[in-house]
């Protein structure tokens, strides 16, 4: 009996027709294993995972393999995106046992959940042999199996320990982190490390703020070069916008084709801030088209943003996206086909499989002559229309609270920068206007969805699907990312409701996730008890729960003037500080927030009757120091603490600038405001 048909997770639903008697993660599954006296097989993956699909096709859809699993195990299928707490515990166990991790993750555990053997992908012959060996060991060598499990639990308990060393995250530490990133920088291809190469979005956000605070030219150049290399590479969708999860090579050419919400949200922030700081036309275009991708491809009408587009199309990677020269000619005609092949590096040999090529941008089109840009855009439109007739990758349409928070924050920042930098004289002004309108609507719907569907009895739920909230409780990253998003929305809209909701989420997190010494656990004190309570301080594919919460605390403290939230943020940041200088590639978000605290952060309030058109507001956004909060509106607007008791000056708009709760005199001219922010 397969019990996944009623699941909210698209990943679990993919396995609902397997000949495996799958259980969802539940107390009942472990009780059944205890009743039968058999081990538990925990299989963890996610809907857009290529090798998860491969293992499913090879093993889980096979009748003989299913029978072997059903006879000897209770099998539990887990969506890592729905249950990051479960994933974190067993990933730590897998890494402790094997020295590496990844998905699909395959864990054998006792009926109380204690892992005793872990791995990742297994080809079917190896998997069959493993199933037989584990079943035999459970029957004939039970004591050794239990001893192995106890050792693994001890190892993961140590790995997830809290209460370690703490130190202030000061300027020398952040300077050391920037210097270490520079030493690990790939000066040829951009980014850090070799293949596979992941977009280092959080490190780039840190480096941008570091450059702002210190003027360090290397930090800006690393960010600019990496952003350009990614945007020109195959990891970026040259037709529809949006970034793939990673590149299988060191030079951004061939992607692993899945597109994740969290990557695109964080990268939207990178390109938006690079555009704000430099005016770079490539950054402007990529920010615009990434915002459009989020709104057009991932937003679910009336809900939030979907989690991902699949890596595969009909079981084949790249089927939707790759081209041959002949296919370009077929879609565009001989002349434009040759133009596109040259522009996008499509060759007879190909850069991908079977003579196919992933589109890369070989020419500097953003600064090209108007007629070249017009031809490029016309070719892009025709190729996209042709591509739309191909089979399309599946969509993982569940809404994850934390990732939607990242998307809301990113779009709010994009909206603010677009309002300052976009001009009616731009040759794509209508396109930019259309994107900002659609993205704004998607952002607001996502925020409403989180506030009304995911927030249940004052507590966040992790996921929803088709407008219905799931059972899994929110983890720390959900509270942190959503609180930060609501603070960003408060700044964009001037609506007090979002700030109130942010404060309630932060209060809940402080009450239920706190750990000794200023740290935080990833699960609440009243959450389901696992074999270990995760508390990972490092930033990986997404900000750690700790980093996300610190970001929310800092923003909320700056917006309200309530110092206890800043105190909590500084204490928590101190628990990450020992890692920052040594391993900055895994603490980018924490270092980014550290830069905001060193800078102030600045609190900028502009009292005005025209928040959308006042030059003071534009100057505040254009020149805002790292992590600054900016609020504009009428004096004493309800629910907006930064506008309280701050009147117009002689009937004129005025900007009030504070830094670390110390305020300067109000100014009424752009020149004076820029001087105060300098």
Describe the structure.
By secondary structure, this protein is an alpha+beta fold. The protein has 24 helices and 20 strands. The strands form six sheets. It has a five-stranded mixed sheet with strand order 1-3-2-4-5, sandwiched between helices. Strands 8-9-12-15-16 form a five-stranded antiparallel sheet. A four-stranded mixed sheet has the order 18-17-19-20, with helices on both faces. Helix 4 (63-72) runs parallel beside helix 6. The protein is globular, with a radius of gyration of 25 Å.
Secondary structure blueprint with pairings:
Blueprint (H helix, E strand, L loop, with lengths): L9 H5 L7 E3 L2 H10 L3 E6 L4 H11 L2 H10 L1 E6 L4 H15 L6 E5 L5 E5 L4 H17 L1 H18 L11 H14 L16 H14 L2 H16 L13 E2 L7 E2 L2 E2 H18 L2 H18 L7 E4 L2 E2 L2 E2 L7 H8 L1 H11 L25 H18 L7 E6 H21 L7 H26 E2 L2 E2 L2 E3 L2 E2 L6 H18 L2 H17 L32 H16 L2 H18 L7 H12 L2 E6 L7 H8 L6 E5 L20 E6 L2 E2 L6 H8 L1
Parallel strand pairs: 1-3, 2-3, 17-18
Antiparallel strand pairs: 2-4, 4-5, 6-7, 8-9, 9-12, 10-11, 12-15, 13-14, 15-16, 17-19, 19-20
Helix pairs in contact: 4-6, 5-7, 8-9, 9-10, 9-11, 9-22, 11-12, 11-16, 12-16, 12-17, 13-14, 16-17, 16-18, 16-23, 18-19, 18-20, 19-20, 20-21, 20-22, 21-22, 23-24
């Amino acid at each position: 009996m397969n019990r996944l048909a009623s699941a909210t997770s698209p990943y679990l639903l993919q396995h609902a027709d397997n000949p495996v008697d799958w259980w969802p993660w539940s107390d009942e599954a472990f009780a059944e294993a205890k009743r039968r006296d058999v081990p538990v097989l925990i299989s963890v993956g996610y809907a857009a995972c290529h090798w998860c699909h491969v293992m499913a096709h090879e093993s889980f859809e096979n009748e003989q393999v299913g029978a072997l699993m059903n006879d000897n195990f209770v099998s539990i299928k887990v969506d890592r995106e729905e249950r990051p707490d479960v994933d974190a515990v067993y990933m730590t166990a897998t890494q402790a046992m094997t020295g590496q991790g990844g998905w699909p993750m395959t864990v054998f555990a006792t009926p109380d959940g204690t892992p005793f053997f872990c791995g990742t992908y297994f080809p079917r012959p190896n998997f069959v042999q493993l199933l037989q060996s584990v079943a035999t060991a459970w029957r004939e060598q039970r004591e050794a199996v239990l001893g192995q499990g106890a050792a693994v639990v001890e190892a993961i308990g140590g790995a997830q320990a809290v209460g370690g060393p703490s130190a202030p995250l000061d300027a020398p530490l952040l300077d050391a982190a920037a210097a270490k990133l520079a030493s690990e920088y790939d000066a040829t291809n951009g980014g850090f490390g070799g293949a596979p190469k992941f977009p280092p979005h959080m490190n780039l956000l840190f480096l941008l703020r570091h450059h702002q605070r210190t003027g360090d030219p290397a930090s800006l150049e690393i960010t600019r070069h990496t952003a350009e290399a990614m945007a020109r590479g195959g990891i970026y969708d040259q037709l529809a916008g949006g970034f793939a999860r990673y590149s299988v090579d060191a030079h951004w050419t061939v992607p692993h084709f899945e597109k994740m919400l969290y990557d695109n949200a964080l990268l939207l922030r990178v390109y938006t801030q690079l555009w704000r700081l430099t005016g770079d036309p490539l950054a402007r275009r990529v920010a615009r088209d990434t915002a459009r991708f989020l709104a057009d491809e991932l937003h679910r009408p009336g809900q939030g943003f979907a989690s991902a587009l699949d890596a595969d199309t009909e079981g084949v990677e790249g089927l939707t996206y790759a081209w041959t020269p002949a296919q370009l000619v077929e879609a565009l005609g001989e002349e434009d086909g040759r133009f596109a092949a040259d522009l996008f590096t499509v060759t007879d040999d190909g850069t991908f499989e079977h003579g196919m090529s992933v589109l890369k941008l070989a020419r500097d089109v953003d600064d090209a002559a108007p007629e070249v840009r017009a031809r490029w855009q016309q070719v892009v439109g025709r190729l996209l229309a042709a591509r739309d007739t191909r089979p399309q990758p599946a969509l993982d349409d569940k809404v994850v609270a934390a990732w939607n928070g990242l998307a809301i924050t990113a779009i709010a920042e994009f909206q603010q920068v677009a309002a300052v930098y976009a001009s009616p004289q731009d040759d794509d002004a209508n396109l930019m206007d259309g994107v900002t309108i659609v993205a704004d609507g998607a952002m607001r719907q996502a925020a409403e969805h989180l506030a009304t569907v995911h927030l249940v009895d004052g507590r966040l739920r992790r996921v929803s699907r088709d407008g219905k909230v799931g059972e899994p409780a929110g983890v720390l990253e959900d509270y942190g990312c959503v609180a930060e998003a609501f603070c960003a929305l408060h700044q964009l809209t001037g609506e007090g409701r979002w700030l109130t909701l942010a404060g309630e989420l932060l209060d809940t997190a402080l009450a239920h996730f706190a750990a000794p010494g200023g740290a935080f656990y990833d699960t609440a004190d009243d959450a389901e008890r696992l074999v270990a309570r995760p508390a990972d301080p490092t930033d990986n594919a997404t900000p750690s729960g700790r980093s996300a919460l610190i970001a929310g605390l800092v923003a909320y403290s700056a917006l309200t003037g309530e110092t206890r939230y800043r105190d909590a943020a500084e204490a928590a940041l101190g628990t990450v500080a020992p890692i920052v200088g040594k391993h900055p590639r895994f603490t980018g978000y924490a270092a980014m927030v550290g830069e905001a605290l060193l800078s102030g952060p600045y609190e900028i309030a502009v009292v005005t009757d025209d928040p959308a058109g006042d030059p003071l507001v534009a100057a505040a956004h254009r020149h805002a120091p790292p992590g600054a909060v900016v609020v504009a509106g009428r004096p004493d607007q309800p629910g907006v603490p930064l506008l309280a008791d701050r009147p117009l000056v002689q009937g004129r708009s005025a900007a009030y600038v504070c830094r670390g709760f110390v305020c300067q005199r109000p100014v009424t001219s752009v020149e004076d405001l820029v001087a105060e922010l300098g």
